[in-house]
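Q: Hi! First time doing this. I have a protein sequence and I read that you can turn it into a structure. Is that right? Here it is:
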Amino acid sequence: MNKNNDINSKQYIYSFTLKELYDNRDGNFIHHDEYASELESPVLEFCYCNTAKFKIKSSKFGKQDKTKDGKVGINQTWYNVFVLFEDFYCIGRDKEIGFEDAIDYAINYSDIHIRCSCPASVYWGYNFISTEMNYLYGIPRENRYPIIRNPNLKGTICKHCDVVIQWILRNKDLLAKMFAEYYNRLNDGQSIYAVNTNGTTITIGKKNGENDIFFEQQEETVEEETPEEQTEENVEEDNVIEEEPVEEQGEETNE
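A: Yes, that's right. Below is the predicted 3D structure, encoded as structure tokens:
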């Protein structure tokens, strides 16, 4: 019998709601909850189809940091977080379902896919975990095992995704307003790709499917200071960008 057709072979199916991902985070791993609590609230940029796109400041934002060539500058990094509600594109267009009910279902019951552009998502294994558990948003998938920084595969999301999920759970009305604007215009026959926070429509690029955004790894953005602005203060380098062997498990870079 073909092994692939063997009735005894097993393939597990994973799915997670927002709350399930949040509840399964490891708040003690690399001070996750502590670092998440220090982040500023995210900004909801736009909504389209079944996806909401947020941006959130690095915890180093506005602080002195080092550029790649070792010079001192001010960190200006924003990370992008995408959240896709798997069933929402169907139920959001169903006129027999109240839109508030559709949003409530999406937030509380829909399977989701999520991704953050921060380095910790790659190097601390969150993208690997979410690839294995089938909730990573977009491509590429991550097949590199985080053998150095997270060999026991602790946690489910980085702290930026944590804060975004908390925001969504607290701000259902605003999210509903954004998606309602999108679907109302779509139902009126307008050619529309996304609605941003001031209610205007925007085009953000070609989209061939509902989960096909391609991501390049994002690094810290640091604006170089002029010589007179520099100080002698020692600034720690971001140790998350390059994967280096360590003897003991350290702390997550507080990006």
